[in-house]
Amino acid sequence: MLVKEMKELNLCFMHPPNEGKRSAWGGRVMFESMGALKGASDLYCFDPLPTVPEARGLAIELKRVVGSNPAWGPQSQHDHLYDLSRLGWKAFVCRGKDAALEVLRLCGLRKAKPNPMVHQYIMEFTHGQSPLTEFPLQ
């Protein structure tokens, strides 16, 4: 549903196929040697962000609202999101499609009514050296 919405919005984005279990050789070694990045986000959006024009892009890591362990993802994903933030990207973990759609709205990529009910399912990663500030999710 999220990808469908992003396509309807005519956004320039990608989803790297990083998920899934891999065998030692047939997957992990070969995949990593081809440039796969441990901790890569689920979605990268390359469009300018109207509400954050200084941002270089948007990265979203998707998690289930219930059932993800850990709920906000492993440290490798957090490290990647902090690295992206340091480089000027907006970087989020969103628990559920509705939270991700709200992030698109906050970034100015989607016109919709605010959905403050999902703000508890959004975590922004802001590197200490980044000039970007967190969205006020109140």
Throw out a few tags for this protein:
138 residues; alpha+beta; Trna Endonuclease, Chain: A, domain 1; five-stranded mixed sheet; globular
Topology:
Layout: H1 2-8, E1 13-14, H2 24-33, E2 43-45, E3 58-63, H3 75-86, E4 90-95, H4 97-106, E5 122-124
Parallel strand pairs: 3-4
Antiparallel strand pairs: 1-2, 2-3, 4-5
Global outline: globular
Low-confidence stretches: none
Total beta-strand segments: 5
Instruction: Tell me the helix content.
Output: 25-40%
Measured distance between first and last alpha carbons? 26 Å
CATH architecture: 3-Layer(aba) Sandwich
3D structure, described in words:
- The protein has 138 residues and is an alpha+beta fold.
- The protein has a single domain (2-124), classed as Trna Endonuclease, Chain: A, domain 1 (3-Layer(aba) Sandwich).
- The protein contains 4 helices and 5 strands.
- It has helices at residues 2-8, 24-33, 75-86, 97-106, and strands at residues 13-14, 43-45, 58-63, 90-95, 122-124.
- A 5-stranded mixed β-sheet has the order 1-2-3-4-5, with helices on both faces.
- The two termini are 26 Å apart.
- The model has no long low-confidence stretch (mean pLDDT 85).
Could you give a short description of this structure?
It contains 4 helices and 5 strands, in the order H-E-H-E-E-H-E-H-E.
